[in-house]
Every structure is written in C-alpha cells, then in structure tokens.
C-alpha cells in the first residue's frame, strides 16, 4: 500500500515527499510549498544562482523574440550550477522568464536530458535500444550496474556511485538510441561517444573516470565534466578561441559512418526523384 502524498500548507515549510501509485515517483521529487506569484522560493535561491548566473539567464532571454523560448537552454544553465534541475532551479527559470512553475516543471519532466536528481561528475549513458541491445548493450548496462553497486545491490537507473558532483562520482542511465547504430554497442560520457563497447571496456572506462582520468572519446570533443558540458549546452562556450575550436570541431565521423554513402556512390545508387508538381490533396470543407 503506497503512502498518499501530502498537500503542503502555504508558507515556507519543508517540501513534502510524493508517491506514485506504484511507489515513489522519481520524476517528481518533492512538491514545492505554495508561494505567492512572483515570489522567489526562499533565501537559498540566491546562493546557487548568483549575479553571474542571473546575467547569463538575462542574456539567454534576450536572444529570443519571446523570452519563454529561452527555457530549454536556461534549464541547461541551471544544471551547470547544481548538476540537476532542483525545485529552486525551476523557480529561478520561472522568475526569469515570467512563467509559472507548473509550466517550467512540465518541460523539465518531459525531456530526459533534464535530471531531477543530482548527477555525478560524469553521466554515463548506455544505449539499450534494439540494435545496441542485440549487440550487447543490455549486458554492458547490467555489468556496470553490478560493478558500481554496493553490498550486492546493483546501481539503478540515474543513480550515482559516489557523492553527486564530487570528483570521481559516476551516474549511470540506460538511454534510448544514441544515434550511432553503425558503431554499436555505444555509450556516452557527458554526451561524448565511446564506440564498439564491451562489458570489459565499459568497466575499464568507469574505473578510469573514478580515478580522475579522462579517457579520450572515440570522436568529438575532449572529455569534460557534466556541469561544464551543461554550460555549453546552455550556449556559453570557452572564450579562448583555440579551446572553443577544440570543443566544437572535434572529429565526429568514423569509417563506418561514411561507408553507406561511399557504397552508394561506387554503385551509382541514387534516391528516386520527386516531382515538384505533386498536387496537394483537396481539403473537405466543414
């Protein structure tokens, strides 16, 4: 029997835990206390989101004709500070963009790239979609769960080995298609690719991360930490031109990636031509 969620009373009382029908709801970590419109969460809001972050938030909002369009990058900005989207982060975005917290929460809980629990220094995403699973993705994920777990208990989805945010901490998750089927099974560390993985290679990789090493990805930018990557996803890149070029211009393709196009060129294969005069279907009047 699950414990019913409690409705918080107005005021700055601690948030209450909420439960779903089948147990604890990991997406909705807590219910915020009721606040008046436009009122910041509490004094703690000013601590993580200081003047520099507020300036970046205003810069993001100014990039769009409608400020609400800046919500996605602003959520990444929040994650670059706290390593996840907290209730304070939701309130911060709502305040900056003149949105309700319900609107921000709806977006933050819809996309899996926004984490509702604190992440480690490194986020390891293992592809377990159909092709990678058939090639060994499920076995890789299971092996990492067992390897990073404690006291015989495997580490769960979006759970962290170590203290979240601390050096050497690793969060693992299973992911649905990382768009690298030609190089599967694959995993990502902070969204950088490690191709053609095996359970043994994956264990070696996470062990290196926990030691503080940063093994070179198979392609793409050099490995960084989760929060630094989130700042780039928010749209803020290194000011040093050389560092910027290294981050954005790393090699992103492999021989396997291009082989299909090369084979088509060698054999003269082309896509069927489409006529520019295809009539539009008639629309029935209502």
UniProtKB/TrEMBL annotation:
Q: Which organism is it from?
A: Prauserella endophytica
Superkingdom of origin: Bacteria
Which of the seven top EC classes does this enzyme belong to? oxidoreductase
Keywords attached to this entry:
Iron, Iron-sulfur, Metal-binding, Oxidoreductase
Provide a Gene Ontology MF annotation, just one. oxidoreductase activity
Instruction: State if Metal-binding is listed as a keyword.
Output: yes
Q: What is this protein called?
A: NADH-quinone oxidoreductase subunit NuoE
Which PANTHER family does the UniProt record give? NADH DEHYDROGENASE [UBIQUINONE] FLAVOPROTEIN 2, MITOCHONDRIAL, NADH DEHYDROGENASE UBIQUINONE FLAVOPROTEIN 2, MITOCHONDRIAL
Note the InterPro entries from the entry: NuoE_dom, NuoE_N, Thioredoxin-like_sf
- Which EC number(s) does the record attach to this protein? 1.6.5.11
């Amino acid at each position: 029997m699950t414990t019913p969620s409690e409705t918080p009373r107005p005021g700055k009382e601690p948030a209450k835990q909420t439960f779903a029908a089948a147990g604890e709801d990991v997406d909705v970590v807590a219910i915020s206390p009721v606040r008046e419109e436009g009122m910041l969460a509490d004094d703690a809001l000013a601590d993580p989101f200081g003047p520099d972050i507020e300036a970046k938030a205003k810069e993001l909002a100014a990039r769009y004709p409608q400020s609400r369009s800046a919500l996605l990058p602003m959520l990444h900005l929040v994650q670059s500070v706290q390593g996840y989207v907290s209730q304070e982060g939701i309130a911060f975005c709502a305040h900056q963009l003149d949105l309700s917290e319900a609107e921000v929460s709806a977006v933050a809980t819809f996309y899996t790239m926004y984490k509702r629990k604190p992440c480690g220094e490194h986020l390891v995403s293992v592809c377990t979609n159909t092709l990678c699973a058939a090639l060994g993705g499920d076995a890789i994920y299971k092996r990492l769960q067992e390897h990073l777990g404690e006291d015989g208990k495997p580490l769960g989805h979006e759970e962290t080995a170590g203290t979240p945010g601390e050096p050497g901490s690793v969060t693992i998750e299973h992911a649905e298609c990382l768009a690298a089927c030609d190089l599967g099974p694959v995993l990502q560390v902070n969204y950088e690719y490690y191709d053609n993985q095996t359970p043994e290679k994956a264990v070696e990789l996470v062990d290196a991360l926990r030691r503080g090493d940063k093994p070179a990805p198979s392609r793409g930018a050099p490995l960084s930490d989760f929060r630094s990557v989130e700042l780039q996803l928010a749209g803020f890149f290194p000011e040093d031109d050389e560092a910027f070029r290294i981050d954005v211009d790393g090699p992103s393709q492999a021989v396997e990636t291009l082989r299909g196009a090369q084979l088509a060129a060698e054999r003269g294969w082309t896509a069927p031509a489409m006529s520019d005069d295809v009539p539009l279907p008639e629309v029935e009047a209502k």
